[in-house]
Specification:
This protein has 577 residues and is of the alpha/beta class. It has 23 helices and 19 strands. The strands form four sheets. A six-stranded parallel β-sheet has the order 3-2-4-5-7-6, with helices on both faces. A six-stranded parallel β-sheet has the order 15-14-16-17-19-18, sandwiched between helices. The model has no long low-confidence stretch (mean pLDDT 95).
C-alpha cells in the first residue's frame, strides 16, 4: 500500500509543470520591467545569460566586469530604473564591486547580481572554487545587500533589491545568488505566485510646509542669490519645473557638470562662465540636488570668498544637511515634490533677484566667454586642448540630441567649461569620485538606453582603463564615436626619468595610434592632426553611425599636472642629499 502511494505521488509530480531558479530570476526581472543586463559570462552564470537572452532580455557581454558595472550604473541614472550588472563569483564580483561603490557614491540606482560559492563550503572555509563571502564584502560598499538561498524567495529578493536601489536616495545594491540556487526546482504555479511586482518603488516624499516657507524667506532676503544645480536635479527628470523655478527666482544658476543642459548652458541666467565670481560674492546659495562635497570645496575656503553665506538645500537625504557647513533652510523630500512646493508657494507675485547682481554676473560671464573665443578658433597642428575642444563645442551645438561622454584630467576639466550642453542628461562623466575608466561602459549604455549617437571624448590615460571595450562597441555595432586626446602621457607626454633608462612614470609610447585598435575589430579608425581634420572625422562618424575611434594628436607639452585639481596632489618639500 505504502509503495503504491509513493509511486502515485511520483507519477503526479512528473505531470506537474516545474520551474527552476534560472527561470524564476528571469521572470522576476521581466515582471519588473528589466529589458537589459550588462555583464561578463562565466561560471556559474553562463547559462543564465543564455536563458535571459532567449527570454527576450537584451544581454550585453563585456570584456571586463568593471566596465559592465559602469554601464549598468549610468543606465540607472538615465532611466531611473536600476541598471543590472551580472558577474561571476569572487574575482568577477570584485571587478564589479568598484562600479557598485561608484554607483552608490553617485546616487545611481544599480543592482550587481553575482553568482557565488555555496554557503556551507564558504562558512567552513573549505577552499571551494572562487570561494569568498561576497555578501560580507559587498555590505561595506553599497546601499543594501541581500542573499537568496531558496528558489521560493527569489521574487522577494529581486523586489527588495529593486526597491532599495531606487527609493529615497538611489544607490547600489548587491544580490548574491549561490550556484545551487539556479538549479533548484519547484512547482511552476507556486513559483509564479512567489514573484513580486514592485509597486511605487520610489514613493514621493513631500517636504514640510514650514521648511518650504523658511527656504523662500531666506531666498527673498538675498541681495546676491545663486542657485546650484546638481546631478540629483537632472536625475529627477522634473526638468520643466526646475527651469520654471530658476526663471521665476531670476537668480543666476551654476550647473555642476552632469547637470549641464538641464537648463541650456546658453540661458541668460547661466553663470557657468562666471563661476568664481558667483561662488565668492553670493550671499544666499540654493543647492538643488547638489552636495557641498569636494567638488564645491565643501562650501568654504578661498573658493567661496569672504562674503557671508546662507545655504538652502533641497535633498531627499536628511543626513546630507549640515554635512560641511550650516544649512539654514533644509528642504527634505524628493526633488520633484520640493521644486513643485517652492513654485506653488512663490505664487505669481515673486520679486526676482536684484537686477544689479544679475547684470554684474552677466557682464563677467560675457567677458570671460569673449576672452576664451580666440583660443577655441586656432588651427594649430599638433593641436592644443582649446583648438580641439573648440571644434567639438560646435559639433555638440549642431547635434544637441547626441550623448556626450567625457573623462580624463585636462580633457575632462577643460571640456566641462568649454563645451555647452543644451538638453538634460546629455553630458555624463566621472561624477563624484572623479575616477578614470567610465568612458566605454558609459558610452555603450548611453547608446543602448537612449538610442542616440554617442560622442565620447577621452584622455589617452583615461581610455586605457576600458579601451578593450571598443571590441564590444563593434560587436554590437553601436553608434559611438570615440575621440582620444593623445598627448603621449598622463597629464602631458614630456616628463623625463632622470634616474635611469625607463620611461618617466607618466609617459606613454610616443606617437601611439589608438585608431588602429578599432580597425582590428571592423570599426573605423582616423588619425586627426589638426582641428580641421578632427571636425571632418567627427562629423563623418556621427553621420554614419559606425563605431569610430579618432586619434586626436595633441601637443605632448599641452596639459597641466592633474588638470584643475593639482592642489590635491601632495608635493614633497624634502630634497634628498
Amino acid at each position: 500500500m505504502a509503495e503504491a502511494a509513493v509511486a502515485k505521488k511520483a507519477e503526479v509530480a512528473d505531470t506537474q509543470d516545474l520551474t527552476d531558479g534560472f527561470h524564476l530570476i528571469i521572470d522576476a526581472l521581466k515582471l519588473n520591467g528589466v529589458k537589459t543586463i550588462y555583464g561578463v559570462p562565466g561560471i556559474p552564470i553562463t547559462d543564465f545569460g543564455r536563458m535571459a537572452q532567449a527570454e527576450g532580455i537584451r544581454v550585453i557581454s563585456f570584456r571586463h566586469e568593471q566596465n559592465a558595472g559602469y554601464a549598468a550604473s549610468i543606465a540607472g541614472y538615465l532611466t531611473k530604473q536600476p541598471g543590472i550588472c551580472l558577474t561571476v563569483s569572487a574575482p568577477g564580483f570584485l571587478n564589479g564591486l568598484t562600479a557598485l561603490a561608484h554607483a552608490t557614491t553617485n546616487c545611481f540606482p544599480m543592482i550587481l547580481i553575482s553568482g557565488s560559492s555555496e554557503r556551507e563550503v564558504v562558512d567552513l572555509q573549505q577552499g571551494d572554487y572562487e570561494e569568498m563571502d561576497q555578501l560580507a564584502v559587498a555590505k561595506t560598499m553599497c546601499k543594501a545587500a541581500y542573499r537568496v538561498l531558496h528558489a521560493q524567495d527569489i521574487g522577494i529578493g529581486v523586489a527588495r533589491a529593486i526597491r532599495a536601489a531606487v527609493s529615497g536616495r538611489p544607490g547600489g545594491v548587491y544580490l548574491d545568488l549561490p550556484a545551487k540556487l539556479f538549479g533548484q526546482v519547484m512547482n511552476a504555479d507556486a513559483g509564479a505566485k512567489s514573484l513580486v511586482k514592485v509597486i511605487d518603488a520610489a514613493p514621493a516624499q513631500i517636504p514640510a510646509a514650514d521648511a518650504v516657507k523658511r527656504a523662500l524667506d531666506v531666498l527673498k532676503s538675498a541681495k546676491k542669490p545663486l542657485i546650484i544645480l546638481g546631478k540629483g536635479a537632472a536625475y529627477a527628470q522634473c526638468d520643466d519645473a526646475i527651469k520654471a523655478l530658476v526663471e521665476k527666482s531670476g537668480a543666476p544658476f551654476l550647473p555642476m557638470s552632469m547637470a549641464k543642459g538641464l537648463i541650456p548652458d546658453t540661458h541668460p541666467q547661466c553663470a557657468g562662465a562666471a563661476r568664481s565670481l558667483v561662488l565668492k560674492d553670493s550671499d544666499v546659495v540654493m543647492m538643488v540636488g547638489a552636495r557641498l562635497n569636494w567638488l564645491l570645496s565643501h562650501g568654504k575656503g578661498k573658493t567661496w570668498g569672504d562674503a557671508p553665506k546662507k545655504f538652502i538645500q533641497l535633498d531627499i537625504e536628511p543626513k546630507e544637511m549640515d554635512s560641511n557647513v550650516e544649512i539654514v533652510a533644509p528642504v527634505v523630500g524628493d526633488m520633484g515634490s520640493c521644486v513643485d512646493a517652492l513654485l506653488k508657494a512663490m505664487g505669481d507675485k515673486w520679486t526676482p533677484a536684484p537686477s544689479d547682481w544679475v547684470k554684474t554676473v552677466a557682464a563677467k560671464r560675457d567677458d570671460n566667454v569673449a576672452k576664451m573665443a580666440p583660443k577655441l578658433m586656432n588651427n594649430n597642428s599638433p593641436m592644443d586642448y582649446h583648438g580641439a575642444l573648440g571644434v567639438l563645442r560646435q559639433i555638440v551645438k549642431e547635434r544637441p540630441d547626441a550623448m556626450f561622454v567625457n573623462e580624463g584630467a585636462n580633457t575632462l576639466d577643460l571640456a566641462r567649461g568649454i563645451i555647452d550642453i543644451y538638453k538634460p542628461r546629455k553630458r555624463i562623466d566621472v561624477g563624484t569620485w572623479g575616477i578614470m575608466g567610465i568612458g566605454m561602459g558609459y558610452s555603450i549604455a548611453a547608446a543602448i538606453e537612449t538610442g542616440k549617437p554617442v560622442l565620447a571624448v577621452e584622455g589617452d590615460s583615461a581610455f586605457g582603463f576600458s579601451g578593450m571595450e571598443v571590441e564590444t562597441i563593434c560587436r554590437y555595432n553601436l553608434p559611438v564615436c570615440i575621440v582620444i586626446f593623445n598627448n603621449d602621457g598622463i597629464y602631458r607626454g614630456t616628463d623625463v626619468n632622470t634616474a635611469g633608462s625607463d620611461p618617466a612614470t607618466t609617459v606613454f609610447v610616443k606617437g601611439a595610434r589608438y585608431d588602429k585598435m578599432i580597425e582590428a575589430f571592423g570599426g573605423v579608425g582616423v588619425n586627426a592632426t589638426s582641428p580641421d581634420e578632427l571636425r571632418r572625422a567627427v562629423n563623418e562618424a556621427m553621420d554614419s553611425g559606425k563605431p569610430t575611434l579618432i586619434n586626436a594628436v595633441i601637443d605632448p607639452a599641452a596639459g597641466s599636472e592633474s588638470g584643475r585639481i593639482g592642489n590635491l596632489n601632495p608635493q614633497s618639500v624634502v630634497k634628498k642629499k
